[in-house]
Structure formats: structure tokens, C-alpha cells
Amino acid sequence: MYAYRLMLFLVFIGYLLSPLMMNGWASPDVAWYRPFVIWGVLIALTLWLEQKRKLDER
Amino acid sequence: MNASLVGMLGAGAGFLLLLWLCAQAVERGWIPTRITRHPLIYALALGVYASAWAIHGSLELAATSGYGYLTYYLGMAGAFLLAPVLLVPIQRMVRTHQLASLADLFAFRYRSRWVGTLITLVSLLAVLPLLALQVQTMGNAIYLMTGVASPATLALFFCVLLALFDMSFVGRRRIDGQHDSLLAVMALSSLIKLLAMLGLGAFALFAVFEGPADVQAWLEGPGQAFQDSVTQTDPAHWRSLLLLFFAGLLMPHIFHLVFTETRSRHTLLQASWALPLFLLLMALPVPLILWAGQRLGISASLETAYLAFGLSDSIALQALAFLAGLAATSATTLLIALALSGMLVNHIFLVAHPPEAHHDLYRWLRWLRRGLVAAVVLGGWLFYRLIGVHHDLTSLGLAAFVGMAQCLPGLLALLYWPGANRRGMVSGLVVGLLVWLAGLWVPLLSDLPALIVIPPGLEMLNGEPAWYAVTLVSLASNALVLIVVSLATPTSDGERAAAEACSVDAVIRPKRLPLEVASGEEFKSPLARALGESVATREVDRALEDLGLSPQDGRPYALRRLRDRLQANLSGLMGPSVAQDIVDRYLPYRQDGPGATEDIHFVESRLEAYRSRLTGLARELDGLRRYHRRTLTRLPVGLCAFGEDGELLMWNDALARLSGIDGGGVVGARRESLPAPWDALLGHIIAEPGSQLYKQPVTLGDATHYLSLHKAALEGSDSEPGGMVILVEDHSEMKWLEDELVHAARLASIGQLAAGVAHEIGNPITGISSLAQNLRYEASDPEVLETTEQIQQLTDRVSRIVSSLVGFAHGGRHLAGRELAPVAIAEVVDEAIHLIHLARSGDDVHFDNRCPATAYVEGDGQRLLQVMVNLLGNARDASGPGDRVIIEATPEASGLRISVTDEGAGIDTSVRDHLFEPFTTTKPPGEGTGLGLPLVYSIVAEHHGSLDVDSPPPGAERGTRIGLWLPHHQKEGETPR
């Protein structure tokens, strides 16, 4: 549950700061696939949390 | 474009046929359930969110707003990242109360059928632009491929085809349950559109470009001009878009799939990473297709939304683009039609015309829904025609999402603010709705400019895009009015209770009220008046089966659970408002009963179920509760507790063992309905003015127990329930020990009496014996001689009996110093049988002496005769006419085993343990002294023998076998066995 609260906090921070990231993505110096890589990392983090939850509840 | 119209319609029909076959395969079990019910299938089905917007609208948005198109995917992915704190609580509520839609949830929480109706209308108005978007893209796509007729006509063909398919789908689904086939169809559609999009993306990346590096080079080179024309999304717009697409969760079809069709919390949590991954893969090809189109220079001749069709002249690639759109459109339309038709039935049709015992309610509902499904699909086409085709996809999509987002403040209040009430929610929603209708929805239908009322203080919104201004103003005013009105107006009790049930930190305190019906079976008759006999019977049977209850179960607790279950099941069938009306009207609580008290047992069972979800202090308190509960349950003394209304709330393990009644079967029952003798016994202690009852004789099984009961009142207060706790102690053993003491005292008295009697009788008997001897010497008449001999024999016997009494009283001291002689056991048995027959009783019992003549023991023949007389007398008394008593003797190494076996009634187990103790008898009062077997035991013990009892004997069904073991003569210094 504490991990979920952390997730809630991170998602909220991400919501507030996401426009800043978007401005970075639009820069021509940045690889076009970078947003998708960041998104993929976030999914991996969620998957890790989910596995941890399953272990906790076992 | 060179595809034929017939070919395109054939492809569309073929695709729908594939979906139909998929549904068929799942329903007929051709696909194993471990596949159809896999969490990944559910996650794929959730991909229905990626509608035609994801295929065509995203291209349009990416061309104008760059990475701003990602908000469509990230908004929903964010909602699923928050699954444990946002989606799981809603799922729990929806499952607990069998709510099938957002309207059901709002109607349940805000306790009004009209709230459900309002939410249904909002949903209908909001999804119409989304449906129009689906219809418009399909019409345009077919027109692009074929170039014949007009997009509107083609879209109509498509809608008719889709409506027929959707109607047939309704007919094949269960109307009130979860549907594997629906999930499978959605998952298949999602898989097809994902593969098609990935295929288009791969073509763009490797056929138009030469890999990722080439894309980067193009973007930094020739593509820079296109990038410069993109208006980067303003941060505030970005956040608003994220919020709007987050609220896409409330769309009827998404809500239905996420909460109603989900199988478990685990499935939903699995989707928290699987759906974002799906959306990532769907989003990835979008910029590639756009850039490929720009590089090929087709963006000038083709609408941006349909660039994928121009990437190549290959019919295969165009078919891939068509397939992606077709899969997205048909799945979205199907699910919207199904979800919305359910809401319309429950919150408009059934509210306007409550079901009054239809002949076949299920059939009526099914046809009603079929009609509504077709109406929704064709309504989408009609709306598309009404708005014309001049709106871009972004305007249509945003109008739908802003409309649906008006339910967001109400939903958040539902979850996190129990203080919100119906008036506040409805006022806020109406205000937000009006702002949205005037600013975005009505302008879709006409060329009138958007009417956006900018309140004072928000002047900075002037000049902003209409969707942004409307979103901000509508949501802000909606939330503000909700808060202000909720704080300013009172909240009803029912609403407060529902608010607590819906709150994330729910403290559910269900009440205990008696029902008018007395058993599960009796539910059917009143319900039949509302639902018809067959539906009522089926629903009651189904609820009984769900709860694992018997139709005859009359426990008030079970009846309340059955009522709740029926309401939940009916809610799934016809919505919570109608279900509650039916249950309240036809299954009312008794008005003459005691006041409502808390249902402690139910609260406890729910706490047990939710235990894994408790954290922090709540978990520690629950641990304490469980400890105290365990202490009471495992208490080695019987304990039961009653509520103020006489309902049994606790029945611990010790009481279950003592009574032989399982707690699970009686908890929740009234005291009067407990099995005998507990109803009367517990009623006695409750009615008793004192707090204790000592040693009450109670027959449990075949034995009499002596129970002591103690009671204490549980003083109730405003917040704590009252009632009574009763302790039940089994004092049978103590009672027996007390009786033993009394018996021992009696025994001692008898011993003293016997000694006195022996002394007093001994002298006259000696005199009689002497006189008889004298008479014998003096007489010569043979008859007199025989008489005197008999007198002497009888006086000898009386002397021996008196001596035995003294011996019994003095614990066998009479054998001390006497020489034991060999005794032929067969002769002893014969003499005993003779004596038994002399008593002129037992003539109808056959004694069978099977002792060998050579079987000898060392002992006192007279004493052993007493033993045999007693044993055979008991066997005779226990036997019926014609029964046999068999006496056998078997020589063993160190002694002789003698057995007396009868075919009588046997000895009760409770008596057997005390058989050789004085005054224990199975005979009727006055017929047995209870001294016979103790005397036998005493004599056998004097001979260093042993006794054992088998009742019934091994291999027999009745009767008793007394086993007697007597040793050979023991010489001095030898250890007796």
C-alpha cells in the first residue's frame, strides 16, 4: 500500500511536470523515440510494483 | 484507390463474421477457459479504448500538436497506473453491489433513480460525438478505398451491418452475467488493430525510411520544415488533455469493460501495466506514419487523418489501414451500444415503466436491449448526418471527452468525500453540463459560434481554444457548485449510509432488522408479484445457490443476506434503483420488531474478507480484534452471545463440541429456533432473575450432563451494541465425583451395618445349626434326617453369606490366612445354573456350560460360586425369552480365561466405565442394588484375577461378554499377575 501511495505521488508529479518533458522532446537534438523509451521505463516500473505486490500477498 | 465497393463491404462483413465465430468458439468452449480468462486477454480487450481516434484522430492531432497526440494514450495509461488506489475501490463497489454502469454507481451512491437517469442522459449526449467520429472515419475510409457513392451513404451501409451484428450479439449473451465471449471479441479486435498499426508503422520505418537513424536524419534535415509548422502544445493545454483522457474511464463502454467485465482485482492490477504497454505500441507507429506521409508528399492531397491509405499503392497496405480502422470502429461501436443500451433500459425504460410481472421478463429485456442497441448505432449515424462532415476528428473527440468529464467531480466525491450529497452533485453536474452543451456540443450541430461564458477572474481564457475554455469553466463550476451546495444542504440518512459504503475508507455498519418472510422459500411468493413466478423462482434459487443457503434456512441473518444478494442480483439485471424499489416493496422489514441494531456477525465476516487490504493502525486493530475473537472462540468453556433482539451472535468451539451443534449453522438464528434442549435451557437462564443456574440436568445424546450457566448483560450505549453473553460449563464429571463421595459414605455405612448384622445374625444361626445337629443325632426318621441336613446346609450358606458381607465391608480381609483349593470351574458353573433355576426365574433362558471338566483354578469355591451366580443372574436379567447364555473356559499359560456371553440388550457406554463401582446398575429401581458386580470385582481381585467387558462382543451386534481371568495357585513369594 505504501508503494501505491508512492505511485500516486509520482503520477501526480509526472502530471504536473509532463509539459516540461514534452518541450524537451520537441527539440531536434533529442532522438524521436525518447518519449517512448521513458514511457517503457514507466511501464517496467509498474510491472515491478505489480510483481512485488503479488509476492507481498503470497 | 481501386478497391470495389462489394469487396469492401465483403471485407467488413467477413471481419464481423470472424468476430461472430470467435464469440461462438468461446461460448461453445472450443477455446479453453485458461486462455479466454487469462489476464492478458482482459488487458487486450481494454484496448477498445483505442477507437478510431487512435487510428485516424491521432494522426490529425500529431500533425498539429506534435507529441500532444500522446495525451490520448497517456491519460488512460495514467488512470491504469493508479489502478490500486483508484480503479480497485470502484471495482470492489461495483462487484459488491452488482452495479453495471456509471449511472448505476451514481444512483446507488446518491440514492436517487433520477440521478441514474441524469447520468444516462449525460452519457448519451457525450458518446454521440464519439459515435459520429467512428461512423465518419469508416464512411471516409470506404469512400477513399472505393471512390463510389458518398461517405454518408457508405457509413449508413456500415452502420446497418454493425447494428445487425450487435443485435445478434445481444441475443447470444447472458443478459445478467459476465461474458467471456465479449472479452474475447474485444481482445481479438484489439489484437488485429495493433498488428495492423504495427504493420503500417514498420512499413513507414523500413520501406519509406531506412530505419530509425534515417528518421532522425530526416527530422533534422528536410523534415525540419514540417516540425516547425507544428504548434507545440501549451503546458496548460497538455495537462487539460491528460485530465480529459483520464476521464475517458467514465465513457460507458470503458466503464463497462473496466469494472463490470473484470473478473478479479488481480486481473485489473495486471492491466495496470499491460494496457499502458498496449497503448504505447499503438502510439508508436502514429508519428512514423505521419512523417512517412510528409516525406512522400501526400499530405497535401490527402486528409492527414487518412495518410496511412496513401503510403503505397499496394492494395494490401491499404487493406491494412482499413482493417485497423474497421477493428477499432466496430469494437468501440459494439461496446458503446451494449453499455448504453443497458443504461437506457435500467435508468429510463424501467424507471418509466417498472416491470410488472412480465410473462417472460428476461425475453422482454433482451428484445428491448436489442432494439436499443440498433437505435444507438443508427443514432450515431444520424448525429453524424446532423453535424455534417465539416468537423475535424479532434473537435468531435474532445466534445465527447469534455462532456463525460462532467461526471468526474461527482465520482471523486463518491470515492473520497462522504459529505457530498445528491443536491450538490446534481447542481454541479447540471451547471457543468450547460456550460459544455453551450460551448461545445450545440456548436457541433450548427454553425453558430460557441457560447462560452467566462466568469470574472478567468479572463485569461479569452482567446484560448474553445475546448480548453469550456473544460476549465465547466469543471471548475461543476466542482465548486457541488462543494457549496453539498455543504449548504442536508444529507439524508440513506444517502449517508450509501456514502459510507462507497467511500474508500468505508466503515460499513449494516443494521440488523427482522424480515416479514420466515424462510428462503417464502421469498418467492412476494417477488413473483413483481417479477412473475418463473423469474422470481429463478432469482431466489440463484441467490440461495450463490450464498450456499438452504431454502428452509430461517435464520434472520441468512434471510438478510439473501435479501441483500437478491437486491444485488436484480441490480445487475435492471439497475439499482428499480432493484431497491422491488426489494423494499415486496420484501419489507418488519415494522413491529425491535429497533435496528448493528449486524456484528456480518461486520466481522466482511472484516475477515478485507483483511489483506488493511494497513497501518487499521491492521493493528484488526490483529487485536482477531486475538480477542480467538480467545473467545478457543475458550475451553462454552460461550454464546445474543444480541438485544435475541439473535445468536457467537457460539464458540467448546459449546459446539458440548452441544454437537456447529456454530456456522446456528449463528444468526433466534434463540427460540435453536435445537432442543438449548432453546429452553438458554431461555431459562435469560429469563432467570439471577445470573447463574447450577448443575441443570440436560440430556445430550444418550447421556445426562449437568450444566452450570452464567450470564452477563452487555450494556449497550449509543455506539456499542447491547445483548447478553452466557457461559456454559459442563459439571457432569464433578457431579459424578460428588456422587462417588456419597456412594463411598453409603458403602462405609453398609459395611458397618453388615458387620453388625453379621454379629447379630451369626449367634442365632449358630444356635439353629446346633439344634439341627442335635435333632439329627436324636432322630431316626429318614425324612427328619434329610430335613435337618438341609437346615444345616442352609445355615452354613447363611453363615457364608454373612461372612461375605463382612468380607466385602472389610475389603477382602476374610481370605487372609485361608488355604485356597483347586476348584473345577465347570462344576461351579453347573451349581450356579442350578441355583439360578431354583430362584424359579430364567427358565426361558438357555444356559450353555461349555467349560471343560478339566479346567481348574485355585480359589475359594464358595466365593467363585458367588461370582458365577452374580454373572449368570445379570446375564439372565439382560436376556430375553429364548436367548442363550454361553459360559466358556479357555486354559492359558498362567491361568484360565472364563467368559460369560449373553445375547441381551448390552450395556450403555456411559454406564460401562462405572460398571464395577458400587451402586451402578442398569436395572429398574428396586430390582438391582448395584452391589453384585462390585462384589464380583472384589472377589476376583482377592483371587488376583481380572475382569473385562465387551458390549457388544466382537463380531456380534448385541449382547455382552464378561471376561474373567483367574490365575493358577500362587505359592508364597511369587509375584501375582
Structure, described:
The complex is a heterodimer of chains A (58) and B (977). By secondary structure, chain A is mostly helical. Chain A has helices at 2-25, 34-57. The longest helix of chain A has 24 residues, at 2-25. The mean pLDDT of chain A is 76. Chain A is elongated. Chain B contains 38 helices and 14 strands. The N and C termini of chain B lie far apart (114 Å). Chain B is an alpha+beta fold. In chain B, the strands form four sheets. Chain B has a five-stranded antiparallel sheet, with helices on both faces. A five-stranded mixed sheet of chain B has the order 9-11-12-14-13, with helices on one face.
Keywords:
heterodimer; A: 58 residues; mainly alpha; 83% helix; B: 977 residues; alpha+beta; 5-stranded antiparallel sheet; 38 helices; 62% helix
- Give the largest chain-chain interface (CB within 8 Å): A-B, 32 and 39 residues
| Radius of gyration of chain B using CA atoms only | 46 Å
Helix and strand composition category of chain B: alpha+beta
**How helical, in percent, are the residues of chain A?**
over 70%
Radius of gyration of chain A: 14 Å
> Helicity range of the residues of chain B?
55-70%
Q: What separation lies between the terminal Cα atoms of chain A?
A: 15 Å
Strand content of chain B: 5-15%
Q: Count the strands of chain A? A: 0
Q: Which helices and strands occur, and which strands form pairs?
A:
The complex is a heterodimer of chains A (58) and B (977).
Chain A: H1 2-25, H2 34-57
Chain B: H1 5-27, H2 33-36, H3 39-46, H4 52-65, H5 71-81, H6 83-96, H7 102-109, H8 113-146, H9 151-172, H10 180-208, H11 212-220, H12 224-228, H13 235-246, H14 252-260, H15 265-283, H16 285-296, H17 315-352, H18 361-387, H19 393-404, H20 408-416, H21 422-445, H22 466-488, H23 493-502, E1 511-512, H24 524-531, H25 533-547, H26 556-574, H27 576-586, E2 597-598, H28 600-609, H29 616-634, E3 638-642, E4 648-651, H30 653-659, H31 663-666, H32 678-687, E5 692-700, E6 703-714, E7 723-730, H33 732-778, H34 782-809, E8 821-824, H35 825-838, E9 846-849, E10 856-859, H36 861-878, E11 884-891, E12 895-902, H37 909-912, H38 932-942, E13 946-950, E14 960-967
Parallel strand pairs in B: 9-11
Antiparallel strand pairs in B: 1-2, 3-4, 3-7, 5-6, 6-7, 8-10, 11-12, 12-14, 13-14
